[in-house]
Amino acid sequence: MKYADVIVDAKSDKVDRPFTYACPFDEARVGSLLKVPFRGGRPRAAYVVALFDELPEELEGVQIIEAAELIASESIDEASVTLAAWMRRRYFCRYIEALACFAPAGSPSKQGRARRPEPIIDASAEVPPQLTDEQQAAFSRIGEALDAEGGVFLLHGVTGSGKTEIYLRTVAAAAEAGKQSLVLVPEISLTPQVIGRFTARFGEDKVAVLHSKLSAGERYDEWMRVKNGEATVCVGARSAVFAPAGALGAIIVDEEHETTYKSDMAPKYDTAEVAVKRACAAGAVCLLGSATPSVVSMYRAREGLYELLTLTERVGGAPVPELLVADMRHELAAGNKTIFSDILHTKIEQSLAAGKKTLLFLNRRGYSPFISCRACGYVMKCEDCGLSMSYHKSTNSAVCHFCGRRRPVPALCPNCGAHALKYFGTGTEKVEELTRAAFPEARIARLDLDTTAKKGSAARILKDFGKGKTDILIGTQMVAKGLDFAGVDPVGILAADVSLNIPDFRSAERTFQLITQAAGRAGRGAEDSLVVVQTYAPESYAIALAVKGDYEEFYATELLLRRSLSYPPFSDMYRVTCYAADREAARAGCAGLADEIVRNLGGGERHNLLGPQEAAIAKLAGDYRYCLYIKVAPGMRRRYEALLADLKRRNNTAEGAAYRMVVDVNPFSLV
Q1: Could you give the CA distance from residue 284 to residue 336 in angstroms, rounded to a whole number?
Q2: Strand order in 44-52's β-sheet?
Q3: What span, in angstroms and rounded, lies between the C-alpha atoms of 319 and 322?
Q4: What is the pLDDT of residues 391-442, one digit of tens each?
Q5: CA separation for the pair 208, 235 (Å, rounded)
Q6: Which H helix or E strand runs over 406?
Q7: What residue spans define the domains of the chain?
Q8: d(Cα 631, Cα 502) in Å, to the nearest integer?
């Protein structure tokens, strides 16, 4: 009889530890999925994390219950268990939350039929193009690593330089060696186009797809296709990093700088970080690609932790688009009160006449960002989050973009009773309305979270744009990432300075990336193209250097600022949040944690603590929130991990705890 330590699927800090069961199944191994009786209730799923031939001495004389069932088809491998244990330490999550990342969604089909995602991109077989000298040099180095013990590469290639072709060649080389690859994209909206490229090269049967817009049944079957080795490559959003590729050859993270790679729910993992960890453990290649690498990734490459590969020229000698700044202060002074600068309006008219496509980018969805009373100054806010609610004209409702709460807009001000509620600011829905008024003959579509809620809608919008059925495409950051369509001229960035005002030390980096990425959608062909950057802050170094296309100067400037303030990459930034139904309990809990840190790690750590402070979102789902930010120096990480894990366990398992504690490592938003 074997004995197994298992992690039971029970989402509670009080049972976040191994439980020992007798295991009568000879084929059981670390990673096996069992069904076990648990605390008198119905059998629960549980993953084996350790096996013993004999009962440990400390359990002698204790009644040991026997596991009820082994589910071999949904078991995971030992490497996944090891990675889950690392995730538990790194991201302060429960063990079962980390293990669940590797498990399939859904269940087997009762009818026994295959459930495949609908083909939504036309993909005819394609002949691989000739590589440029730069592409060949980069791919040769990756090929050497595939043949050896793997490696981590940062592929810094300007937009249009052919990074995707290197991804395709890497997958092909891994497949020739009998290995599988994972290809990650930052947005589900990009997945269809990427799937099309890989399907055209490898065939539909060799490409699996994993993302949250699939049904649970489709995700289950695609997971099984990867596990059984039927698929050569798995394409998906961040969760695809956990796909069960047994013989892993490569993990590719496209647009590695994107914030969507950071999970905002437990476990709050960083996809690129997990990809690097998984690839290194498997002796595989991890390829991080971007035209605007994150400051942290570039720093790691310059420090030798990653190997840097560069592509400096567009494939086929395609011209780099011209970037032109439209100072909206001057436009307003000249009497132009529209959302379009004179140069952008003129260029769109010329584009329509020439049968070209226009892309308009604004990183703010909805009709208006907030609703306010002009009589008393009242602003409609979410009861749960305390944030301003955005107006959505299509549904005549106020929506909280953080928690999703939706309310009808009252006719009168709830505060003073005046008939003076007005909608302020501009979102993509309002841009669409104004664009239709300005260009009534144009065929216009919008791509944002509101228009892509229905399954397959994003793919259809992009397909129509690619085929020329849409003249003007308006969108949020979904349109700024990786899209490759010919004939786009111009690209209009309507409010380039929106992201500069976000209270985050990365706001300049985010602005530089968004402008550069959005601009990169233009000029995907032999013709010249124009990008109009509309802003009220043209003097910002982030905007000026993005327009100039100077990544190196931006990186050097940003690194100097980060070093002086000990921000990442010179530290890890931890956010410790205390949630409580009582505001004072949350505040006192956060203050107490700061005192505990200083008491345990020394007074010298006090200058690395920012706060305690009320969170930017002061109330969420009925709980008040206070935050403590910690700059964790590289040499202090282990000590902070141990201390915060212990504080979290003790507090969150205490009877009648006054608050709940959550830790987020390197959050991509300080809100």
Answers
A1: 56
A2: 19-23, 2-8, 44-52, 33-36, 69-71
A3: 9
A4: 888 788 888 866 678 889 888 998 999 888 887 778 888 899 999 999 999 9
A5: 6
A6: strand 406-408
A7: 2-100, 133-315, 319-365+427-563, 572-665
A8: 20
What tens digit of pLDDT does each residue of 251-263 get? Answer: 999 999 999 999 9
Determine the CATH number of domain 572-665. 3.30.70
Tokens, residue 60 = 């002698």
Q: Taking the CB of residue 355, how many other CB atoms lie within 10 A of it?
A: 9
Check the CA dihedral 594-599-601-604 and report its sign: positive
Distance of alpha carbon 400 from alpha carbon 391, whole angstroms = 9
What tokens were used for 263? 């999970």
The per-residue DSSP string of 301-320 comes to HHTTSSEEEEE-S-GGGPPP
Distance CA 24, CA 2 (A): 6
At a CB cut-off of 8 Å and minimum separation 6, what does 61 contact?
none
CB–CB of 544/607 below 8 Å?
no
Burial degree of 577 (CB within 10 A; 0-12, 13-18, 19+): buried
Q: What is the CATH number of domain 133-315?
A: 3.40.50.300
Domain 2-100 is classified in which CATH homologous superfamily? PriA, 3(prime) DNA-binding domain (3.40.1440.60)
Long-range contacts of 457-463 (CB under 8 A, 24+ apart): 458/188, 458/189, 458/192, 459/120, 459/121, 459/189, 459/192, 460/120, 462/189, 462/192, 462/193, 463/120, 463/121, 463/192
Q: What angle do CA 276, 282, 287 make, to 5 degrees?
A: 40
CA angle 568, 571, 572 (to 5 degrees): 85
Q: What is the pLDDT of residues 325-378, one digit of tens each?
A: 999 999 989 999 999 999 999 999 999 999 999 999 988 877 777 788 888 888
Dihedral sign from CA coordinates of 148, 149, 154, 155: positive
- The region, left, alpha or beta by phi > 0 then psi within -120 to 50, assigned to residue 335 is left
CA–CA separation, 341 and 256 (whole Å)? 32
Axis crossing angle, helix 457-466 with helix 191-202, rounded to the nearest 10: 70
The answer to whether the beta carbons of residues 324 and 331 sit under 8 Å apart is: no
**Where are the alpha helices (H) located in 356-425, listed in sequence order?**
none
Question: Domain 319-365+427-563 has what CATH class?
Answer: alpha beta
The whole-angstrom separation of Cα 458 and Cα 476 is: 12
Task: Please name the helix (run of DSSP H) or strand (run of DSSP E) that holds residue 159, with its range, or none.
Answer: none
What are the backbone angles phi and psi of residue 473, rounded to the nearest 5°?
-110, 125
- Same-fold call for 133-315 versus 572-665: no
Distances (CA, A) of 181 to 80, 347, 464: 16, 43, 30
Beta bridge partners of 474: 360, 446
- Note whether 567 and 574 are within 8 A (CB): no
**Burial (Cβ within 10 Å: 0-12, 13-18, ≥19) of residue 182:** buried
